[in-house]
């Protein structure tokens, strides 16, 4: 599709026609497959694939546990044909070899607006049959099945006018939004990292209270596959997270997340560029097991109206910014 578009532009008869082409954005027709199944220990597994592709990044595996735990496997090698045949393998972890048997077809309405849609948008439901085998690291879940339900999304080619450039509204700061943020991390050996993140206040409760989000994140590689394992929790702000920032920059904070976390962590600004992160905070992270989230080797930083200068060099933090370690 990309080659065809380039060829069309190269052979445009006039400059005005080429300009007309530059005023539109083209989304190629694509098909996506989704397979869902249950595993042991209360876990659920989903496999997604971009059909008509092969190689890395066309297939992903996602596991969701019973206690707000998730594991994502990104960059799985494999191939997936237009008709829903999928082959993928991660040595020692997963093997998938299935074909799709359709049972129903449902049209999906697209709110196209000014876009030109070339074809029908469909949801094809059915069953994927073959081999679906998965064994999570450390045995957190196991799947061994010969079939699983799923569906294929058919998205037609769309041509849309490019959006007009509008003046950007002034970006709100953490102080404007009442945001409080804490991030602590520990570099593991090799290409691995472990972080603990607090973001609040977050979700508004019907009674007027707010919830604070806690996330423990472990990133590592399994061969050429990136593995991202998470344990999350939500708690009422007043009882689980307190932050002191008398002049806009945090000087102290305490995090006491609810289950499945245990214990608490305390942030103390010792100088403009150094901070202590202490306590007995711990949690169970899938693929890793039980781990301490404070102690020697941990760094920490916090933000209110301003951020402390205690984050590792080169790490960009702030509201709306991905805070994972590079």
Structure description:
The chain is about 10% helix and about 55% strand. The chain has an 8-stranded antiparallel β-barrel. The protein has a 4-stranded antiparallel β-sheet with strand order 16-17-18-19. Strands 1-11-8 form a 3-stranded antiparallel β-sheet. It has 4 helices and 22 strands. It starts with a helix and ends in a 23-residue tail after the last strand. The protein has 2 domains: about 25-160, Lipocalin (Beta Barrel), CATH 2.40.128; about 175-305. It has helices at about 1-10, 15-20, 175, 235-240; strands at about 25, 30-40, 45-50, 55-65, 70-80, 85-90, 95-105, 115-120, 120-135, 140-155, 155-160, 180-185, 195-200, 210-220, 225-235, 240-245, 250-255, 265-270, 275-280, 280-285, 290, 300-305. A hairpin with a 6-residue loop joins strand 9 and strand 10. With about 325 residues, the protein is mainly β. The protein is globular, with a radius of gyration of 24 Å.
Strand content: over 45%
How is the biggest beta sheet arranged? 8 strands, antiparallel, barrel
Arrangement of strands in the largest sheet? 2-3-4-5-6-7-9-10
Question: Percent range for helical residues?
Answer: under 10%
What top-tier CATH class of the largest domain fits best? Mainly Beta
Radius of gyration: 24 Å
Measured between the Cα atoms of the first and last residue, the distance is 33 Å
Q: Mean of the pLDDT scores?
A: 83
Counting DSSP H or I runs of 4 or more residues, the number of helices is 4
How many domains? The number is: 2
Helix and strand content put the structural class at mainly beta
């Amino acid at each position: 599709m990309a080659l065809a578009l380039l060829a069309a532009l190269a052979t445009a008869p006039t400059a005005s026609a080429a300009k007309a082409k530059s005023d539109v954005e083209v989304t190629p027709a694509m098909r996506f497959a989704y397979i869902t199944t249950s595993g042991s220990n209360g876990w659920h597994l989903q496999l997604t694939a971009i059909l008509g592709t092969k190689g890395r990044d066309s297939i992903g595996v996602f596991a969701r546990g019973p206690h707000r735990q998730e594991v994502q496997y990104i960059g799985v090698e494999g191939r997936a044909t237009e008709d829903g045949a999928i082959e993928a393998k991660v040595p020692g972890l997963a093997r998938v070899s299935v074909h799709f048997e359709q049972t129903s077809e449902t049209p999906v309405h697209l709110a196209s607006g000014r876009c030109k849609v070339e074809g029908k948008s469909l949801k094809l439901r059915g069953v994927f049959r073959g081999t679906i085998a998965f064994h999570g690291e450390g045995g957190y879940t196991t799947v061994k099945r010969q079939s699983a339900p799923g569906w294929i999304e058919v998205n037609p080619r769309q041509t849309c006018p490019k959006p007009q450039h509008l003046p950007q509204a002034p970006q709100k700061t953490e102080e404007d939004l009442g945001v409080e943020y804490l991030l602590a991390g520990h570099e593991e050996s090799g290409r691995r990292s472990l972080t603990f993140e607090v973001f609040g206040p977050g979700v508004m409760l019907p009674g007027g209270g707010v919830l604070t989000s806690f996330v423990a994140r472990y990133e590592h590689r399994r061969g050429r596959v990136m593995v991202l394992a998470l344990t999350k929790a939500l708690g009422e702000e007043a009882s689980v997270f307190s932050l002191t920032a008398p002049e806009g920059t945090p000087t102290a904070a305490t995090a006491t997340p609810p289950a499945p976390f245990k214990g608490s962590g305390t942030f103390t600004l010792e100088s403009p560029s150094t901070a202590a992160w202490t306590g007995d905070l711990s949690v169970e992270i899938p693929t890793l097991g039980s781990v301490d989230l404070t102690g020697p080797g941990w760094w920490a930083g916090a933000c209110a109206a301003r951020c402390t200068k205690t984050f590792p060099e080169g790490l960009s933090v702030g509201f709306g910014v991905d805070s994972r370690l590079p």
